[in-house]
Amino acid sequence: MGLLARVGAGDLAALARLATYVENQExxxxxxxxxxxxxxxxxxxxxLTGPPGAGKSTLIDGLIxxxxxxxxxxxxxxxxxxxxxxxxxxxxxxxxMRERPDDAGVFVRSMASRGRRGGLAPATAAMIxxxxxxxxxxxxxxxxxxxxxxxxxxxxxxLTVLLQIPGSGDGIQALxxxxxxLADIYVVNKSDLPGADLLARELSGIAALSxxxxxxGEDAVPVVRVSAVNGDGIVNLVDAIERIGVRRxxxxxxxxxxxxxxxxxMTESIRTRVEAATNRADIDRLVREVADRRQTPRRAAExxxxxxxx
Length: 310
Ligand SMILES: Nc1nc2c(ncn2[C@@H]2O[C@H](COP(=O)(O)OP(=O)(O)OP(=O)(O)O)[C@@H](O)[C@H]2O)c(=O)[nH]1
Ligand SMILES: [Mg+2]
What we know:
With 310 residues, this protein is of the alpha/beta class. The protein is 49% helix and 13% strand. It has helices at residues 2-8, 12-23, 27-36, 56-69, 91-94, 120-133, 148-152, 179-182, 196-213, 234-247, 251-277, 280-291, 297-306; strands spanning 44-50, 74-80, 106-112, 138-144, 159-164, 185-188, 223-225.
């Protein structure tokens, strides 16, 4: 496989091609991960999430610069919630990261989350492995903190950074339940705007309370104030990520990630296999029978699963 060798040699054009196979979970992509998986596990992987427009992409651009100054290679996977059909913003508009065509140490990839065949979760996990195997020391995954599936991606990374912004009127932004809990670092971005002090205090209060209630006695989640547009506080954020990253690569956390991915991949493959083994008419018939109370949902599901062993 010439493509793999070229990726191994740092060829970003080859990596971009392979990434497309991996994103679409095509045979070439699946085979590449089979071959590469044993050489993954080196990168520190970081999820970065927050409400739309919080400045996630702008911040990632600053993180890239800081890591590059420290000699580290950075890969970015930006999960794009706009459907290709909805006519959302163009990619160039959404990915507010400078192009660095001359820098082989940076690779940015956007992945659509909507309207895709096969699950987002297995494809994203595979993409993380690809960038890890391609030698990127830090792999960032940007997700918008409102969609369920996008948020679940954070189960596949070592640590998660949650962005909040001041001045949105209601303090902590309405977010999916559980998002505050799964973050390892809180960032107050746009701290050049009024209200940053208040928001930082609120987040510190939440962090202190959660830590005092934590049976494992974990340290309070740090609150880092940054301004992604003018670069303030980015070095502090990188330092916090590096510090927590060391802890988050312990055995129990690696098991957590492996377990999450195993479950996600298994769920997805059962679903696609059942779909492939069952024809549309059978599914419609089962739906009718369940709706008419002639069959229980459990029995109907068993019948669909039985198609797998036929
Ligand atoms: N004042 C101020 N504006 C910022 C800051 N960071 C980002 N912005 C602006 O906020 C807007 C959104 O920035 P993005 O980086 O695209 O935000 P995002 O969270 O990636 O957005 P989505 O991917 O669409 O959810 C842009 O106009 C940025 O210039 C900041 O620190 N201060
Ligand atoms: Mg963005």
